[in-house]
Amino acid sequence: MSHSHQRSLFDDEKEIVQNQPETPSPLQSTEPHSYLPEADRKLVIRASAGTGKTFQLSNRFLTLLRGSTPDKILASTFTRKAAAEITDRILLRLAQAALDDADFQSLKSFTGSPEITQKDCLTLLKVLTQNLHRLRISTLDGFFSRLAGSFSLELRLPPGWRLMDEIEAEHLQDRAIDHVLREGELQELKNLMHQLDKGSVRRSVYQLISEHISQFHEIYLRTDAQAWKQFGKIQSPSSDELESIVARLAAEPIENSRMETARNGDIQRIEDEEWPALYKTGLLSKVLGDGKYHRKEIPDNLKSLYLELEKIARAKWLAPWAVQTAATYELIEKYDRVYEQLKRETGGLRFDDLTRRLAHSLSNRSTSDLAHRLDGTIDHVLLDEFQDTSVPQWSVIRPFAQDTTTGTNKSFFCVGDGKQAIYGWRGGEAAIFDAITQQLEDVEERPLNKSFRSSPVVIETVNRIFQGIGNHDGFGENQAVLKRWSNEFPKHETARTELPGYFQLLTSPIPKDMEPGDRDQSRVDAELNQFVANMIADQLKVAPTGTIGVLTRGNAKIGELIYELNQLGIDASEEGGNPLVDSAAVQLVLALFHLADHPGDTIARFHIVNSPLGAIVNLVNHENDRAAHLFSDQFRKRISQSGYGETVHELTGQLAQHCNRRELRRLIQLSALANEFDTISQSLRTSEFVEFVEKQKVQEPTDSRVRVMTIHQSKGLQFDTVIFAECDGLMTKPPKYLSYTPKPGEPPEAVALYQSQEFQDLFPKKLKLALAQTTDKAIVESLCLLYVALTRAVHNLQIIVRPRTAKSAEKTLPKTHAGLIRAALAPTAQLESNVVLAEAGDPAWYQSLPQLDSKSESPPPPRELNIQFKQSDQSRRLPRVAPSSKEGTKLVQLENILPTGDSKAVDRGTLFHAWMEQIGWLDDGIPEDEILLGLATQLGIQGIDLEQSLAEFHQSVSRQALKSLLSKRPYLSAESMNVSEETKQEILQAPVDVTFRNERAFAVRENGSLLTGSIDRLVTISRDSTVLAAEIIDFKTDALPNDLIAINDRVEYYRGQIQAYVQAVSNFYKISPQQISSKLVLLKLGRVINVDVEG
């Protein structure tokens, strides 16, 4: 049926919207929303863990689909994985209901009234499968990306913009930092660094700037300059004022000897400028308090002097804080200006960039203005995991939410759980979820606290812990946060009353040889790791079909636990993946690639020589410089000809016999990463490949029943057994900055670098509020993390804490997750070695799990791997051919071209190519020396005289031949181009456009092969977008005598490579070789040579 009779705020949209084709819902009645009760039209669901959020959202989607088209329903969630699960769930439930009566009976009770039929299910399934391309089930980032594509001009996006990957973004960030370092005045940078690092020189300038940018860039983007100026005008006292107060203090007669000693100590602290110490010890804190020192009243004259001193001390204490905060803002502002410019130049953007631009440009626009760009209206909004939504994301989605809550025949559905808001560090703002009912009209809020996951024992344990955390009395001023969480925690129930369960809170053993009072926690942690591994081994014996999730706070613990499990022969997977460098075999192969770029690295040599790889690559003596440099040259050439993928593939086959199963899996994954690198980079700098591998997280392909992961990675998962193995660390870490936001969804009003709360009485007013808000938020997020950890368990929850090794008695419970759990369940229990502190349920809970088939109870011993690696199947992809493989039309000794005794020649060549890449037209000048030297640093060039190299570079480009070659004017007449006369005449007929590209990458077919590479400099001459001619310029840094025979020999050597370039340019511009000029530039000699090629 048609929707033409409906009225909504989109009815007055342009004719293009009214006339666009639409796939109507086959079940649509005269009242489009008769399937959805009016009371359910605007809902916010507060769904606790395990209560079926995805199930609720899929029910809603299916109900709406009965009266709407797929493209009018926006369903958004937090991850692509979750979006795919929702889509799968919807399609699967329809398919099952269409085929199975039991599944149909279950479905129809959740999809509105009148009841759906099996025929309806089949019809809806058909509609969905035919319109998957119009389905709007995605992450918010995915939706925003499509939205941005429709508003490129309004958002001022760069032409041809694209989303950058992590590696490219980091390279741009490095370039921006490098620019900040190069462009700043030396003294200005010194002052800035001194201010940022509080006078310390422990870190490098680059490291300090990089750290500040990673910590403060996000908050900078959400604030204006005024937010960073909360200190007002601080009147710094003069030296005369300081000397005066010290003199008067020293001269003040004091009868009490204790007071006199304290006064003298304060004077010393003033002279040492230890201003915070004045507030901690001595008389000042007493004057500001009850006015007594050791129960003796402080004389009024002395009080007056100290009150005067306090004003000076406050100014002295606040001034550095204000300066450091201002310096941080100044640094980030400089960096951001350059970073944004680089993104404009490269056309690269991140998802966050799109979200901020959309929030700034579209948040106040009516959705009716957006309809024609979106190919239709959005009548229904479904938001999942809303507690993790950021302020900019909400700014973009809010107009759609407001429209669906105020328009007719529309609906809004939002589901989330403030208790699971664990992504504040990524910008998630749970307060938006808490305030959503105030920001949207007539939205009803409903709780959902019945678990369909966990056993009664697990649920009751969760209730007891979170309703009892307020018993912990060690949080001081932040105690109210615990009390509020405890009081507001809803009592959980479970629908799985039939499930058996078990819970233990227990300590790990103390190492047997550890002396009482020994506080070496590393030994205790190592013992805990072994204890957990043995517990898992025991669990697998009695419950081999059960799943086990081992949860940690950080990534470091994962590797430690995996190691212990592997020692026991237990296969365990790492959720979310880790970089492949967790494998010894991968590290060995990467050492080989590192050596190719740095043949002088004796550590890498030693690593390789003392491994099976040494014999494979014929490196047998790590002290042999010549052998290492010869290997480097040969290996780099091999990569240029075969690519990274095939090189790693061959090495994997050669190392396979030396690897266990896990190491071999990781090598195979390395081979896949190398193939991926081949598709995105033509770089022969093998260190770039190593960097790429080190930053990629790769999950091991295993069906292991044991999975080790951080709590963040466990979100959305469940396990028969959960072992919380890291709950003794501090709940929160000192934040990098304080911020204050008056209302949820608004930008912060106040920002400053972090200062300890022990001095909060000295804080400016808004920064006091910022401290309280920041601290409370950190504690709440830590409580959310604990909640997520405990609610992953289905049957069995095991919480392991460290035993106490100190001799002294514990005065108060620690401010840790372990401390909170103990406060709720075992507040007086002593932390002795390997004891149970609290327990509930049935230790034999596992008897309810499915049992292994008797035939598989004693599995056969694993067979030895006997894998034969075949050569890469050439039929699957074109063989790669590099132009450099065509060098040498006659036999030439390799060291004549690349001297094997000196890797400096390779680095020098790399550096000169990089410097030449920085030159546009010489008419516009040469980059500053600081830029060129900074580039050398960025490339990691070491061991060569940069000043001498720079002088040689300037000498080369100052020669007349190169000046002419790198200038634009000669190309306007093609006077120096080696092209046909006919081509020159065509160029002279009318004005032409002359452009250049440095490092022009290409990939073209050649006789069944794929010719790939990059041209150092490619100049094109065109008219009306049609290329008339091109010139290939290839820079060489070969060391040659200045005689004709040697030069001609070298030109002959490179002729094949130039021929390949000509063919590539001819192919992708569709011009003949006669329209292409080729020049070889010998930079050392300053010679430019025409190279004639066949064609």
From TrEMBL:
What EC identifiers does the entry list? 5.6.2.4
Q: Out of the domains of life, which is the source?
A: Bacteria
Report the residue ranges that make up the UvrD-like helicase C-terminal domain in this protein: 480-716
InterPro entries named among the record's database cross-references: DNA_helicase_UvrD-like_C, DNA_helicase_UvrD/REP, P-loop_NTPase, PDDEXK-like_dom_sf, PDDEXK_AddAB-type, Restrct_endonuc-II-like, UvrD-like_ATP-bd
Specify the enzyme's EC class, one word: isomerase
| Keywords assigned by UniProt, alphabetized | ATP-binding, DNA damage, DNA repair, DNA-binding, Exonuclease, Helicase, Hydrolase, Isomerase, Nuclease, Nucleotide-binding
Q: Name one GO biological process term.
A: recombinational repair
Residues the record lists as binding ATP: 47-54
Transmembrane annotation, as ranges: none
Q: Where is this region: Disordered?
A: 1-34
Q: Could you tell me one molecular function GO term of this UniProt entry?
A: 3'-5' DNA helicase activity
Gene Ontology annotations for the cellular component aspect, listed alphabetically: cytosol; DNA helicase complex
Question: Which reactions appear under catalytic activity for this entry?
Answer: Couples ATP hydrolysis with the unwinding of duplex DNA by translocating in the 3'-5' direction; ATP + H2O = ADP + phosphate + H(+)
Q: Where is the composition biased (Polar residues)?
A: 17-32
> What's the protein called, per UniProt?
DNA 3'-5' helicase
- From what organism does this protein derive? Thalassoglobus polymorphus
